[in-house]
Amino acid sequence: MIDVLVIGGGNAALCAALMAREAGASVLLLEAAPRAWRGGNSQHTRNLRCMHDAPQDVLVDAYPEEEFWQDLLKVTDGQTNEKLARLVIRESSDCRDWMRRHGVHFQPSLSGALHTARTNAFFMGGGKALVNAYFRSAERLGVQVRYDTPVCDIELQGDRFVAAHVPPREVGGRQLPAERIQARSCVLAAGGFESNRRWLREAWGQNERGEWPADNFLVRGTRFNDGVLLRRMIDLGADTIGDPTQAHMVAIDARAPLYDGGICTRIDCVSLGVVVNRDGRRFYDEGEDFWPKRYAIWGRLVAHQPGQVGFSIIDQKALGRFMPPVFPGTAANTLEELAGLLGLPPAAFVDSVQAYNQACQPGTFDHTRLDDCHTVGIAPAKSHWALPIDTPPFYGYPLRPGVTFTYLGLRTDESAAVHFAGRRSPNLFVAGEMMAGNVLGKGYTAGVGMSIGTAFGRIAGTRAAAAAERISSPDEARHDRATA
């Protein structure tokens, strides 16, 4: 029998598998995706948010624990478990040496990358390179890896893990039978339910306009996070945490593909202009705070607009101040022309932009700080970086909500154990997006998802190896045989 079964193939799962193997356990990792699509949402990431008290290799200045905590507290509006959040923060301070030992390389923050040179360590080659490095290290250490192997059911005895069930499936033109895979302990790291349209529909329901908002959501990440395992754990009585409508949801280019658009579809010029809905009206403060702390609220904001669509509008002055997205903006020499090209009502759109322009107050523009360029006498206000949109050509980018991962998950504590009626399972653990809601009740700040996955993946792997060792003792072995 295998010691530790890891279900999932992203950052958290790989961290768990590596830690369990380093602890001496035999490890089997099951990845639902084919090899070419391995890595879950982690393949689309770029960086890890890191606490540090002094400059460290690719990180400049300092980013102490209390500042990290205050940033997280602010973006979540207090909907976070402080004990677990601080655990993640502290773990982020010393994980990079371990990551390097497994082949991950870092580079300085990219120019225009959300002002993160102080707070975030960037992976050289991005998330795909990180995932590939971890898989190479896992295979070198003797971790067994199986692709095209989704898990549809978990077999429990009370709160104790017994086996995972894999459904019949076709792989490479061959029909494979159902399987029952036993292990002494298990780590669940199979992601959220963002690619399950039926579940998203169920969570978001219909709005007052009779629309099903979820029908218009795009998925920034993997198509394989269908939530089947999460739903099964909920049905089996695992304790849950989080609101099913809360997610890391970004405003992305409406022209992005349904799945796997990744970071290059994100629109990063929001704070440099205005955003209007399909009626040509502004609906939120575009300059509320630094973009790394606010970019992930805009998907949800757009989701509540008519048709779940918005438009980011800038002028010539904004060019060169943000990371350009993969699709070019629609350009026009007049606001009226831009409205026609974007399908917006010209009069309402021009009125919105002109009202904003008139409300802009003179100041010293500085996109690297919370400057004094703001609006007066208009709602919604723009708190910072408010420059009139008056220099052609003008540009417009259509927006849709892009779901990265959902926050409804399994409740846990510092042990990473799955809880049943408030009690820890002795041999079933959880990491990554399946438990991120313990730390992220709402909101997001750049790189913290990877911080959570790395911290709890490492904890879950270590704990799972220890649980497997206990179960391998003579007394536990007799118990297993008697109850199998």
Descriptive notes:
It comes from Pseudomonas oryzicola. Strands 1, 2, 6, 7, 8, 11, 20 and 21 form an 8-stranded mixed sheet that branches. Strands 12, 14, 15, 16, 17 and 18 form a 6-stranded mixed sheet that branches. Strands 3-5-4 form a 3-stranded antiparallel sheet. The protein is of the alpha+beta class. The protein folds into 2 domains: 2-192 and 227-243 and 407-483, 3-Layer(bba) Sandwich (FAD/NAD(P)-binding domain), CATH 3.50.50; 248-402, Alpha-Beta Complex (Flavocytochrome C3, Chain A, domain 1), CATH 3.90.700.10. The protein is globular. Mean pLDDT is 95; it is low at 477-484. It contains 13 helices and 21 strands.
Would you kindly provide a brief summary of this structure?
With 484 residues, this protein is of the alpha+beta class. It has two domains: 2-192 and 227-243 and 407-483, FAD/NAD(P)-binding domain, CATH 3.50.50.60; 248-402, Alpha-Beta Complex (Flavocytochrome C3, Chain A, domain 1).
- Uncertain segments are 477-484
What does the average pLDDT come to?
95
What kind of oligomer do you see? single chain
Largest sheet: 8 strands, mixed
CATH-defined fold name of the largest domain: FAD/NAD(P)-binding domain
Record field, number of beta strands: 21
Q: Termini distance? A: 13 Å
Structural class: alpha+beta
Count of distinct structural domains? 2
Helical content class: 25-40%
Taken as a percent bin, the fraction of beta residues is 15-25%
The gross shape turns out to be globular
What's the CATH architecture of the largest domain?
3-Layer(bba) Sandwich
Radius of gyration: 23 Å
CATH homologous superfamily placement of the largest domain: FAD/NAD(P)-binding domain
